[in-house]
UniProtKB/TrEMBL annotation:
<protein>
    <recommendedName>
        <fullName>DUF8094 domain-containing protein</fullName>
    </recommendedName>
</protein>
<feature type="transmembrane region" description="Helical">
    <location>
        <begin position="198"/>
        <end position="222"/>
    </location>
</feature>
<feature type="transmembrane region" description="Helical">
    <location>
        <begin position="263"/>
        <end position="280"/>
    </location>
</feature>
<dbReference type="Pfam" id="PF26366">
    <property type="entry name" value="DUF8094"/>
</dbReference>
<keyword id="KW-0472">Membrane</keyword>
<keyword id="KW-0812">Transmembrane</keyword>
<keyword id="KW-1133">Transmembrane helix</keyword>
<dbReference type="InterPro" id="IPR058407">
    <property type="entry name" value="DUF8094"/>
</dbReference>
<feature type="domain" description="DUF8094">
    <location>
        <begin position="315"/>
        <end position="606"/>
    </location>
</feature>
<feature type="compositionally biased region" description="Low complexity">
    <location>
        <begin position="107"/>
        <end position="121"/>
    </location>
</feature>
<feature type="region of interest" description="Disordered">
    <location>
        <begin position="106"/>
        <end position="144"/>
    </location>
</feature>
């Protein structure tokens, strides 16, 4: 029976080891599942719908080919659809049965033919559009690369494979360069759970059982040898003569009996070691509490999910990682343009008063190189991010960015995006005042609603704040709006008054100076705060006019000043006029709160200097 038990144990061990290795080889299921689709040739764009990406759980590995170059980006489905709206594109989505992908062409609508009875309005050459006003006739970009809507983008020459991990509500746009047809082949692959939790126990258990069978076999052999000795005493017969003594045989040791079977002894440890090596380092070989694929959220999507309480409000215009990428691009363009004095380059990322101030600064520095440049745009640390809650366009985002130099004031940027294919432009770039009391705002994952310019729920409507503050700068405490603005911490008001006092002291007796204010080119932009108030950015122009008071007298400007470099006029018998643009940021409390309007930051720059007519 000992031999029977040994043979049964060895046979079972072989069966278990074979089954264990078969689970990882012959019977192993695929490690992934994939769906593919052929994109109809001709369309410049293809959109992989969120339903196709969510066909299976886990990260998505996209393989795109059939074009050169190959471009792929992902973003919120609404943003992707808005970008391709009005163009011919292929829509790749999941079939109703969920077993395959399908591609459908969406043809661009035909352009409307203008009526013969109506003529398009043509702007007058004498009245050019204001800086920052979008040109409706400008051609929209056709290449999706570099758009501010994308959370992340990738490109390759002919074949692109990337693994992403996006939640529901995210779509992918595929293109070549916007003019060539889009790549024609798309495949989406998801990892599957092909773990074999019993492979490890079978292999290791089989190896252990083989050791047990071998031990039983050795035990049976030893028992057999011992059982072959004399069992009883035989009766004595007649005495025989003594024979010559034969040589005594050498005793046989147990190790010599099993000598020819050393190969089996060596095989079992090898199997055991091999099993441990194959199974000890992989969790797929062992049972676990959960065998499901656990996806890890993409870092660029961490801010897309709003709290449950905010599920019924519109999504914010951008995510924090998305805004960081946008500001990084803007800072790079601004640095290059500020160095090369490139008006064309800076116009690709700035608009309104922020662009106006930089363009004039470039013009002045081209004549007088020692004039200080405009404050650079930092992109190192984001102290505040407040996107607008908006499902459509135009969109707005406010953010406060700190530079690497702690002595420099943080910069508040107000960005606007006019349409899906337009990039975000800096409309206001404002340095915060020291210890500016920035109010509490909603988290970036929720955003804030926009405040209309004429809303009357604040101490002052946003479109009235610039004029009211201008009146305070002109009249001081005598202004009817003086009590509405907080004096403490308003360093700009003190700076303006100090400049006026210095100019008056240096002005000759033959000249007189007059100050006035006027609306600037920037529109008031406001987002709501948690205290039912708002953060409001406005633009105000301060105008200083110097005229001679005596007949035959002239007024002259400092030849080393920026005004002289801009106007090119050293002296004039008519007078000189200089215009300064003020970008102002306020916290405006809710009406009836009893609080005052607080200046959060400002930026001033010369934008015009001319001789009076």
């Amino acid at each position: 029976m000992r031999f029977v038990f040994a043979i049964v144990a060895l046979v079972l061990s072989v069966v278990m080891i074979v089954l264990g290795f078969a689970q990882r080889t012959v019977f192993l299921e695929p490690a992934s599942t994939s769906l593919s689709a052929s994109i109809p040739d001709g369309a410049p764009y293809a959109v992989i719908d969120a339903s196709a990406l969510a066909a299976h759980a886990g990260p998505q590995t996209l393989t795109i080919s059939g074009g050169s170059p190959v471009f792929m980006a992902y973003g919120r489905s609404e943003d992707v659809r808005a970008w391709v709206d009005g163009s011919t594109y292929s829509d790749v989505s999941l079939k109703k049965d969920g077993t395959a992908l399908k591609a459908k062409i969406h043809t661009a609508p035909a352009p409307e033919t203008p009526s013969s009875t109506s003529s398009p309005s043509t702007p007058s050459p004498s009245s050019p559009p204001a800086i920052g006003t979008p040109d409706a006739t400008a051609a929209l970009p056709t290449n999706p690369a570099g758009s501010d809507l994308w959370l992340e983008e990738f490109s390759a020459q002919q074949h692109l494979t990337r693994t992403i991990n996006v939640p529901a509500g995210i779509s992918v746009i595929v293109a070549s360069d916007g003019t060539k047809p889009a790549p024609t082949r798309v495949s989406v692959e998801w990892p599957t759970n092909n773990a074999t939790p019993w492979a490890g126990p079978l292999i290791v258990g089989g190896a252990v059982l083989a050791l047990i069978g071998l031990a039983l076999y050795l035990w049976a052999l030893l028992h057999l040898r011992r059982s072959q000795g004399p069992r009883r005493n035989l009766p004595r017969g007649p005495r025989m003569p003594k024979l010559p003594r034969a040589p005594r045989p050498k005793a046989i040791k147990a190790s010599e009996i099993t000598g020819p079977r050393r190969s089996m002894i060596a095989i079992v440890p090898v199997l055991l070691v091999s099993g441990l090596v194959l199974t000890g380092c992989s969790p797929d070989f062992w049972p676990s509490s959960s065998g499901a694929v656990t996806p890890t959220a993409s870092p660029t999507l961490d801010a897309t999910a709003a709290p449950d309480a905010a599920a019924d409000i519109p999504l914010p215009a951008v995510t924090v990682p998305q805004l960081e990428q946008i500001v990084h691009r803007i800072a790079a363009v601004a640095t290059e343009a500020d160095t090369s004095l490139s008006s064309d380059a800076i116009a690709t990322r700035f608009t309104g008063p922020a662009l106006e101030q930089r363009l004039i600064n470039y013009k002045i520095r081209a004549v007088k190189a020692d004039v200080a440049p405009v404050q650079a745009i930092p992109d190192s640390t984001f102290a505040l991010t407040l996107p607008q809650q908006s499902p459509g366009w135009p969109r707005m985002v406010m953010t406060v960015v700190e530079g690497t130099n702690p002595k420099e004031a943080p910069t508040a940027l107000v960005l606007t995006q006019q349409s899906p294919r337009a990039n975000y432009l800096v409309e206001y770039a404002i340095q915060l005042v020291p210890a500016a009391p920035v109010p509490d705002v909603a988290p970036a994952a929720i955003g804030a609603p926009i405040i209309k310019p004429d809303v009357k729920l604040l101490v002052l409507p946003p479109d009235k704040i610039a004029a009211a503050y201008g009146d305070v700068l002109q009249k001081g405490e005598a202004s009817e709006y003086s009590d509405l603005f907080e004096v403490k911490g308003d360093t700009f008001r003190a700076q303006v008054q100090a400049s006026k006092d210095q100019t008056a002291a240096e002005l000759p007796s033959t000249a007189a100076i007059e100050y006035s204010v006027a609306p600037g080119s920037g529109q008031p932009l406001a987002l709501a705060t948690n205290d039912s108030g708002g953060i409001v950015a406005v633009n105000l122009n301060e105008i200083a006019t110097v005229r001679p008071v005596d007949a035959g007298a002239t007024v002259s400007s400092n030849p080393d000043s920026a005004s002289a470099a801009l106007s090119g006029v050293a002296s004039s018998a008519k007078g000189l006029q200089s215009t300064y643009s003020d970008q102002l940021l306020f916290h405006v409390p809710a009406a009836g709160s009893g609080e005052k309007i607080v200046l959060l930051g400002f930026a001033q720059g010369l934008i015009a200097s001319v001789e009076l007519p």
